[in-house]
Design a protein that fits this description.
heterodimer, A: alpha+beta, three-stranded mixed sheet, 8 helices, disordered N terminus, B: mainly alpha
């Protein structure tokens, strides 16, 4: 019996420790589904907590029933007793009623979950058609995100990469496309995930209720650098967003200093131009991210590195040592060429 | 024939001494008839279900260790952020091979193996229905496993995940031979699983001892039958998926290429139509381990036999209606998805029924808390958490947040380790005495359990939190600012405690085989027919095939319990009985040792392995397989009786036709 009690204590102790751990570490985080910053993530987070509480109650109840069963423990050293082939009918009936009630409660809980889940699902997708705030086309590539802001006015359409600015309080519709393999777009603080599938079009909308930066990451295994395919969503007030957008629709700044001019020449005469475009220059390839306003972005290499001069230099010279397998080749530029190129790229605000 | 009639027949008097001598003579003859070929040749031709199953079990356990080592390597890599212990390429290969190994090379074959060993003993048969086919299944599985690991060790291990989604696994994004090795390995394990399923269904339906009508079938056997049917319906889907993938890669078809009108989602449907039942193919046999353990260690009849059987069967059916819950993030209309939400939640009802029935059994029994029962209790604690998180994942909207995160990693390990590996270890402790004649140590067993239980929860419980905190699956590293480091470190520490638990088990096995307490026929005083024969069982399983008198054969056997007489002792003869009532129908010769299953397995291997390099392999392989199959079918069906015939020894039946006379058909 003593051993049974210590066993019980051990199990209960573990349970409490685990619950405490769960509760303590559930707040905060820039990429956290239970730290919601938008209506969708908020409703999902509430659904999570509801299910968590109900399931915890179910689990604890069943465990208590199981632990109480351990009272039937016998101290007989051997398996000497006659097996019970005809249990007392009265007790057996009680057990039958208990099992039937437990099954009934299970069924009721499942129906409850089904209804709650369905209505939560409806709130996420039902009025998709009416969301006309802002429309973005997102294409997944190995291993970066191509972001294209749509507009009825063609001159307002522009393309950027790995950093999505959205106005606070406005629903944003995303059209998701697969560029090569399947990726999945997921910004947990704002909404659930949706896949980007070649040959299919998927849609999702999300909305940020407070300004902030939220990290998102590819959630469908997409090859070698799946781990380093992230993006940032920058939610900002409408006027800031408008200013940003206004800037993004412009062609690139013309280089002013000698070094920047030389840098542009380096860009246009080396391998860079084979994959990248800079609007307003002859560079117009769409294989890699659009660099028209690269200096305005906070990170490079799909949110792997902060956008600093050092990182940019490392990335240009030998991106393979940072993110092995990515599609960018090594560039053996001379030091002065590299510095000029960096001057030029850093001027592309 | 009712067993009352059988009893009457048995009462015919025979002089005791004469009987004992005749019995001894008969036993010797059975020994000779069912003798197993020994030595290296024996290894290739021995069809005895027990030796095939033992090899299956040991092989699958070795793969379990390999998979575990891969898991430990991954945990080392993820122990801290921005770790450089493994390169991304190594990590991707390792997680792919870990998943593939655990699903295809450990879990399914292990469960099949347990069935192949125990089903004939539990139903009172001399061997399985198709012993040579069974041997073939083992070799095909072994070759598939060797293929995967040869590739892995030569840096050609698959790296597109155990699910190998297209287009990533297609020719454009996975050049080289890595994915081909995966696809062909799948083919090998499919064949072996299908063979195992056919063998088990055949044995259970037609070879049960008289009296074991379908309503007396042990719950373990029910679980094996349901699993086998699921295999038969699930495996063709993955066969389609993997052969379409292979032909896309090898002969430029475009089944899954969206640029040429193919469909990437089609692959996911085919794969998960197999992939979800697969989970139940692993889980249902484990439910079959739990019932006999609960019965034996609570020493009472099971509560709700009918409910348990119906739950198993309905799980088998509903298991096929859930696959879309792996695809909620793809563009499928909400109404359609909700159907799968409902089905996914519904399957928790039969699981609930079973858990409640077992707890009710425990409530009304006299519990002997030995190691097997301890593992079953651990199953309850772990599996229920896994089941409840499964209900959460069934909800479309919630799934969109936690799908493809570490939350799913936690869920699937709670379900598969809690639901399958814990009962499996319980089953090892429970049946080890039957397999080897010696007991595993109880004290070491407790250490084994607690290390595994604590280690397991330490690894996987924090992963729930990691998933909610936004950590996606299948990432080889993560940035420090995500705040995932502490929980990952805890998980990595837990992994080594879990591994220590498995190590303790291995030590226990090696110790027990040399010095374990001698078990005797029935160390647990349990009810199943397998405990009525010696430990380990003789090659022919039972001297006399028993006649079953109830659902708990040994507990309900009367002292003058009847047995089946009249089967030849000089031929590998067994009794074929009717499907439902188990009435004797005819006597049937079981084939014995043969070199041809191994040859056909080699031909299969040539076909699929060389097929990775040239389509001509299919032609050559077909010819080779044709030759080997011809020899298999036209070879001497009574190979096994040659010894007896050559020595010219013929024995007289001890007691002429007064036994249970099988009807001639």
């Amino acid at each position: 019996m003593i051993q049974a009690i210590t066993t019980k204590r051990r199990i209960l102790g573990c349970l409490f420790a685990l619950c405490a751990m769960l509760c303590l570490s559930s707040c905060g985080g820039i990429q956290n589904s239970i730290n919601p910053a938008g209506p969708q993530a908020d409703s999902l987070s509430r659904l999570w907590w509801l299910m968590f509480v109900v399931c915890t109650i179910v689990f604890v109840t069943v465990m208590i029933a199981l632990l109480l069963a351990l009272r039937q423990r016998t101290r007989e050293p051997q398996f000497a007793s006659t097996p019970i082939l005809e249990p007392q009918p009265q007790q057996e009936r009680r057990r039958r009623n208990a099992v039937i009630s437990a099954v009934t409660i299970t069924i009721i809980i499942m129906f409850f979950f089904l209804i709650v889940s369905f209505s939560a699902g409806r709130s996420l997708t039902a009025d998709l058609a009416h969301k006309s705030g802002l429309s973005i086309e997102l294409t997944g590539h190995q291993w970066w995100w191509e972001v294209r802001y749509q507009d009825v006015d063609a001159s307002n359409i522009f393309t950027t990469a790995n950093e999505i600015h959205i106005p606070v309080g406005v629903p944003v519709t995303f059209t998701l496309k697969g560029g090569d393999v399947i990726h999945s777009f997921w910004v947990p603080n704002l909404a659930g995930k949706k896949d980007l599938i070649p040959g299919k079009i998927n849609t999702i909308w999300l909305q940020a209720d407070k300004p902030g930066v939220y990290r998102g990451q590819c959630a469908e295994y997409c090859g070698l650098q799946h781990a380093q395919m992230a993006l940032w969503v920058v939610a900002e007030p409408q006027d800031q967003f408008n200013a940003w957008r206004q800037n993004q629709t412009q062609t690139s700044l013309t280089p002013t200093t000698d070094s920047q001019k030389h840098g542009q020449q380096v860009f246009l005469t080396s391998t860079c131009v084979m994959c990248h475009s800079i609007n307003g220059t002859p560079a117009g390839s769409n294989i890699g991210p659009n660099l028209t306003h690269v200096a305005s972005r906070n990170t490079i290499a799909a949110a792997t590195l902060a956008n600093t001069r050092d990182h940019l230099a490392q990335w240009i010279k030998d991106s393979q040592s940072i993110k092995p397998g990515n599609k960018m080749p090594q560039n053996n530029l001379g030091d002065s060429d590299l510095q000029s190129l960096l001057d030029y790229l850093q001027s592309l605000k | 024939m009712s067993y009352k009639e059988a009893q009457k027949i048995q009462k015919t008097t025979i002089d005791d001494q004469e009987l004992a001598a005749a019995m001894e003579r008969e036993r010797k003859e059975l020994e000779r008839t069912w003798a197993r070929p020994s030595g290296v040749t024996g290894w290739f031709i021995d069809t005895d279900h027990k030796s095939v199953a033992k090899r299956y079990i040991v092989t699958a356990f070795v793969f379990f260790i390999f998979g575990g080592i891969e898991a430990a390597l991954m945990r080392l890599q993820l122990a801290r952020p921005n770790n450089h212990f493994l390169s991304p390429d190594q990590y991707n290969q390792i997680f792919t091979v870990h998943g593939t190994t655990m699903m295809f090379l450990f879990a399914v074959p292990m469960m099949t193996a347990m069935g192949i060993y125990l089903v004939p003993l539990m139903i009172g048969a001399r061997d399985v229905a198709f012993p040579r086919l069974n041997l073939y299944g083992y070799f095909v599985y072994l070759i598939g496993g060797i293929l995967l690991y040869t590739g892995f060790l030569l840096n050609t291990g698959p790296d597109a995940g155990w699910f190998a989604y297209v287009p990533l696994a297609g020719p454009s994004y996975s050049p080289g031979k890595r994915v081909d090795i995966w696809a062909q390995m799948i083919t090998f394990t499919e064949i072996s699983a299908l063979v195992g399923a056919v063998v088990i269904i055949g044995s259970v339906f037609k070879m049960r001892a008289p009296g074991m009508s379908i309503n007396r079938l042990p719950l373990f056997v029910w679980a094996q039958v349901v699993t086998s049917f699921m295999i038969i319906f699930a495996m063709p889907a993955v066969m389609l998926a993997s052969s379409f993938l292979a032909s896309d890669r090898l002969i430029d078809t475009h089944f899954f290429n969206p640029a040429e009108g193919g469909d990437a989602i089609l692959y996911q449907h085919l794969f998960w139509f197999f992939g979800h039942p697969e989970v139940y193919i692993i889980f249902i046999p484990a439910l079959g381990f739990i019932s006999p353990i609960v019965i034996a260690f609570s020493r009472r009849k099971i509560f709700g036999y009918l409910a348990l059987v119906l739950s198993l069967i309905s799980t088998g059916f509903i298991g096929f209606g859930l696959w879309v819950h792996h695809m909620f993030a793809t563009p499928i209309p909400q109404m359609g998805q909700s159907f799968f939400t409902a089905a996914s939640m519904m399957i928790s009802i039969p699981s609930g029924v079973q858990i409640f029935c077992w707890i009710a059994t425990l409530w009304g029994g006299k519990l002997h808390i030995k190691t097997p029962l301890l593992f079953v209790l651990g199953f309850f604690a772990i599996f229920i958490i896994g089941g409840l998180t499964g209900v959460m994942l069934a909800s479309v909207p919630l799934d969109l947040q936690i799908h493809d995160t570490f939350f799913v990693v936690a869920h699937l390990h709670y379900v598969l380790i809690g639901g399958s590996v814990f009962p499996l270890f319980g089953a090892f402790y429970y049946w080890f005495p039957k397999w080897t004649g010696r007991m595993l140590s109880e004290r070491v067993g407790h250490w084994n359990f607690w290390l595994m239980f604590v280690g397991f929860n330490l690894v996987f419980f924090p992963m729930h939190q990691l998933g909610l905190n936004g950590m996606p699956r299948r990432v080889y590293t993560y940035l420090p600012e995500t705040g995932w480091a502490t929980l990952n470190l805890i998980a990595s520490i837990g992994a080594f405690i879990l591994a220590a638990g498995v190590l303790v088990f291995i030590i226990n096995v090696f110790w027990a085989r040399r010095a374990g307490e001698v078990a005797g026929d029935n160390p647990w005083a349990a009810d199943g027919l397998e405990w009525s024969t010696t430990s380990p069982p003789p090659n022919y399983n039972f001297h006399n095939i028993p006649v079953v008198q109830g659902r708990y054969p040994l507990w309900q056997a009367t002292p003058d319990a009847p047995v089946v007489r009249g089967l030849s002792t000089t031929k590998r003869e067994t009794l074929v009985t009717s499907v439902l009532d188990s009435q004797p129908e005819l006597k049937f010769d079981i084939p014995g040792p043969s070199p041809w299953p191994f040859c056909v397995a080699l031909a299969t291997a040539v076909t699929f392995i060389a097929g990775i390099f040239t389509p001509w392999a299919f032609l050559v392989g077909a010819i080779l397989a044709g030759i080997a199959l011809t020899c298999w079918f036209f070879g001497d069906p009574n190979y096994e009786n040659r010894t007896a015939r050559e020595t010219g020894e013929r024995s007289q039946p001890v007691s002429p036709p007064r036994e249970l006379q099988p009807k001639e058909v």
